[in-house]
Amino acid sequence: MTDRTFATPDRAAWRFAFQRHRGTLAAIGLAVALFVLYLANHPAGFSLNVVQTAANKSTLLAFVAAAQALVVITGGIDLSAGMILVFSNCLASWLVVGGVVPALGGAGLVLLASLGCGLINGLLVVVGRLQPIVATIATSACYYGLALLLRPFPGGGVDEDLADAVTSKIGDVFPASLVFLAVVIALVWVPFSRSLYGRAAYAIGSAESAAYMSGLPLQRAKLATYALSGLLSGVAGLYLTFFSYTGEAAYASGSAYTLYSIAAVVLGGVSLAGGRGSVVGAVFGAIAFRTVGDLLFVFDLDPLWQPLFQGLVLLAAVSLGAIPLISVRNRLEWFP
């Protein structure tokens, strides 16, 4: 009787933890399974170069997905994430040059500019009281316009030593891009998720009216969320500059990364209704979504069919995120 009494709270705690993180755990399992399938069928087999190439491509989408997840947790959506990436890429091609020290200073200015872009989004939503989808559609056009002013034609450069340090292998074994990704997520997401603003962000997505009555700092939490989202999109643009050694105002790339980030967020277990999920899950959702694209090449699918197949995956991912909501009779059941 005594053992059962003491065991029950432990089981309840484990059950609660599993329910809270099951989306993230599912995303990790899916990403690992798809990546193993990719390596098993790759023509070159398992090699460090294959892993590094896949990691570099996944890291770029992972940063944008992390940025998107922050906003989606509050029940919003950021349609400017891809364009902040493009703007930051073009700005970095001007500023991240010279030696390592000047390049680091330039990288700091790029991140500051992207933080400002996210803050503008937040001000439009919080102070201007615009719907997130409307505000970010408008700002995405503005950010793309700035990118075009900076780079009407592809060009520029980046400090090669700094770029190689981020995109190469550590000790000729482990992809440096994954370390860079883990460090950035740890520095941004972990403190935010454990802060008062992080808890307020989840409360906003769960039930904003109830969160308001509880006295949480909702406006400041939203501003922080959008600002950090812009920052992570800026990190993605900076990483793209490290990866490509150049800047380009590519409208198609910005639009694609915005859409793919939404798919990655849903695959990562983040609810489009808000209040559930984590940035970590979105990162693994991005890895899974990118690996699906790589599998199309591995299985030699006709390039003409690849956009259609990726569109179906995107549709399936968004539909998958809506399935649990269909069976919910009361909103309180979705946000226990």
TrEMBL record:
It is a multi-pass membrane protein. Its main location: membrane. The keyword Membrane applies. It is found in: Cell membrane. GO terms for molecular function: transmembrane transporter activity. The chain crosses the membrane at residues 21-40, 60-77, 84-101, 107-126, 133-153, 173-192, 223-243, 249-272, 279-299, 305-326. Keywords: Cell membrane, Membrane, Transmembrane, Transmembrane helix. It comes from the Bacteria. The keyword Membrane applies. It holds the Pfam family BPD_transp_2. One of its GO terms (cellular component) is plasma membrane. CDD domains: TM_PBP1_transp_AraH_like. InterPro entries: ABC_transp_permease. This is ABC transporter permease. It comes from Methyloraptor flagellatus.
